[in-house]
Amino acid sequence: MSRWKAPQLIGVAALLVAASAPISANAAPPATPRTTLPAGPANPGFETGDLTGWTVTEGTAFGAGAVSSADTYWGGPFHHKGRHHLWGHAAAGDDATGTLRSSSFAAPSRISFLVGGGWDPEHLYVALVRDSDGKRLLKQTGPEDEAYVRILWDTSPWRGQAVHLEIVDRKSGGWGHLNLDDVRVGDAASRDDNGLTFRTLGQANQPTAERNHAADPLRPQFHYTPYQGWINDPNGVIQWRGRHHLFSQYYPDAPKWGPMHWAHAEGPDAVHWRELPVALTPPPRATPTDNSGVFSGSAVDDDGTLTVAYTKFTDTGAHPGATPETVAVATSTDGVAFTPGTEVITQAPPGSSAGFRDPKLFRDPVDGRWKMVVGSGDGGRGKVQLYASDDLRTWSYAGVLTEGDGTTGAMWECPDLFELDGKWVLLYSTNEGGQSLQRYAVGRYDGSRFTAERHGVLDGGGDVYAAQSYRDDAGRRLMTAWMSDWNVKEPTRVGGWAGAQSLHRELFLTADGRLGQRPVAAADSLATGRPVTVEDRTVRGSWRIGRGDSVRLKAVVDLARTTGDTVTLRLKASAAEATVLRYQRSTGTLTLDTTNAGYGTRATYSTHVEPTADSTLALDIFVDRSSVEVFTGDGAALTARVYPRYRESDAVEFVADGGGRIWLRSAGLTQLGSSVLPD
Question: Residues 654, 658, 659, CA angle at the centre, nearest 5°?
Fold first, then answer.
């Protein structure tokens, strides 16, 4: 379990909260536009360098100095428009409170604006207020990230009525501020200065009784996500009674980390998922800030009983003197309802100062007993603790399975030990210098100790963490992981949800002993319609094979007949942004570049890829609405969450290096459908 706490959340997006009644109930009969009212608020982007046109109506949060020309903050660029913007932290920090009002204007059909700052729908928001009665018609909280996200409101129910914007800050303490910039009205609200169309984030994406997963332009269509709330680590992955089960760390009440539950989904093929009731829930909060919950764990079939082991986390701030992390077991006979958990390990073993969590169960072929590996760390070295049992209830400590040398993180989370192709593999997640990594080791296991012979990073991208695997009925070793990093920039919070699990992958050992992965075969069933395919095509300059927000690209590049050193693919591409994949022939380096991909983390990720004996590069790329997963023929992978700003950012293009050419033996682009099964 990635032990997230609210102050650790770095990058989050905003949650739009509409007024308490439906829009139709809020709206007065449309009024005739008053020609004396301007078309929008005065000084909409604060380009005067001060609060001209805006009025402080309460408190000190928006005093002199709140308008800033700062381009960057501690986490990167603000991504504001123009030179100035309203930075709510600049004037008086997080403790100050207050309200700020714009000038009045005639409500247009649409309004958009950039919002940043803290997340608190009740105390921290931008509101559209009707002048005549002071009613707040719409409101939007911040993203708990300084970087801006654009919100687009449909304000046509109030068109022509006198309205104003109000910025409300009634939150003190951490993230107790709000940022605003570039208010746009009418036709300009939907389009950027470059003529591209903003994706509609905010109002249109809120929960409905129909649970329309297609309405949100950033919601993945074939990756598991919560409809509302937050998920992180996958838990308890298993095939039980022929069905694949996926549990996830889950907080249903907000699109950010909180007291952990276990969300639950199941399906026939490890690709399509049907939502089931929440499997495990935390105890009632003892205090408003009590974050005690059900942390990560695993599942096994115990003679027909689905049995899960998990970390019971107790927030010692709310429960002084309690043991923070213990191991508990719960069971189910129908795969839906679970017994309350029973503690089976009540104290961490010595040498666990950095933590003790995320039990993974397995049946040990060495001695036939149940074993459990638990993540831990001490003295700057990550480690894995080992336990043994005959009945999954009474456990004995078997010692340290393995530990690091101090270079691979101080705490190893989510360990997973399994046999594969005649070797033993250990998966573990760690943080190294602020970077989250999913590591693996291949080696030997004798029933009590694991000896690594080879180490590696499972996925060279930035967004694979807390991987968990299981052996399915066909004998395959399948794995999924949380698609996020410790920056946790989640613009999807404006739709009320955050987090996604990766596509399920089949693990294997490569000829040279690395841990390889490929998409699960059932991913083929996501295809809709006929693919666009070509064979033996030469690309000079650039060539667009097609478009789509949810697509799969399979390509085989003939490197022997390709000239130039770099083969480039632009994914989720438009004139303004793209996620760029590059292969450098001279070094064998495959790079995924998200520095101009839209919202979210901006970085470059790389891995090494060896061409085949006949000098080809095979790529299998899954592009969803807010993610890219790249698989290569030799088992390497790169994964990143990406959040395009514009509707037009959906092209897939090959680009030849300089005046050279790319020779494609084959390429095919297939549209992919939804993985959601009806309840």
Answer: 95
- The full DSSP string for 183-230 is EEEGGGGTB-TTSPBBP--SGGGS--TT--TTSSTTS-SSS---SSEE
For residue range 411-465, list pLDDT tens digits in order.
999 999 999 999 999 999 999 988 899 999 999 999 999 999 999 999 999 999 9
pLDDT in tens, 366-420: 999 999 999 999 999 999 999 999 999 999 999 999 999 999 999 999 999 999 9
Strand partners, 186: none
- Which residue, 450, 586, 597, 419, is CA-closest to 515? 419
Does 622 score more than 80 pLDDT? yes
Please give the backbone phi and psi of residue 24, each rounded to the nearest 5 degrees, phi first. Answer: -60, -30
Residue 604 CB coordination number (10 Å): 13
Q: How far is CA 345 from CA 235, 328, 329, 396, 531, in A?
A: 19, 7, 9, 9, 53
526-672 CATH choice from 1.10.443.10, 3.40.50.12780, 2.20.28.90, 2.60.120.560:
2.60.120.560
Q: With 60 as the cut, is the pLDDT of residue 8 above it?
A: no
CA distance 118 to 103: 24
Name, in order, each residue with C-beta under 8 angstroms of 144's C-beta and a sequence gap of 6 or more: 9, 11, 12, 117, 118, 119, 175, 256, 493
Residues of the chain within CATH 2.60.120.260 domain(s) are: 6-190
Class of domain 6-190: mainly beta
Q: How many other C-beta atoms can be found within 10 angstroms of the C-beta atom of residue 305?
A: 13
Q: Give DSSP secondary structure letters for 64-80.
A: TT-EE---EETTEE---
Average pLDDT over residues 224-235: 95
Nearest to 243 by CA among 318, 177, 169, 299: 299
pLDDT > 70: what percent of the chain? 94
pLDDT of residue 21 exceeding 80: no
Of 542, 549, 550, the closest CA to residue 526 belongs to 550
In 3D space, the residue among 673, 665, 677, 588 whose CA is nearest the CA of residue 634 turns out to be 588
All CATH 2.60.120.560 domain ranges in the chain, comma separated: 526-672
Residue pair 327/348 in contact (Cβ under 8 Å)? The answer is: no
User: Minimal CA–CA distance to 188: which of 36, 33, 40?
Assistant: 40
| The pLDDT value given to residue 433 | 84
The answer on pLDDT for 209 being more than 80 is no
The Cα angle at residue 514 between residues 509 and 516, in degrees rounded to 5: 55
Active site amino acids: 233
Rounded Cα gap, residues 290 and 412, in angstroms: 25
Q: Are strands 229-240 and 497-498 parallel, antiparallel or unpaired?
A: parallel
Global confidence as pTM: 0.93
Dig out the tokens for 591 from the structure: 């790079």
Over residues 6-24, the mean pLDDT reads 33
| Phi, psi (rounded to 5 degrees) for 323 | -80, 125
Percent over 90 (pLDDT), the chain = 84
Q: Are 162 and 103 in contact (CB under 8 A)?
A: no
CATH 2.115.10.20 residue ranges for the chain? 237-247+269-483+498-519
Q: What CATH superfamily classification does 237-247+269-483+498-519 receive?
A: Glycosyl hydrolase domain; family 43 (2.115.10.20)
d(Cα 460, Cα 457) in Å, to the nearest integer?
A: 6
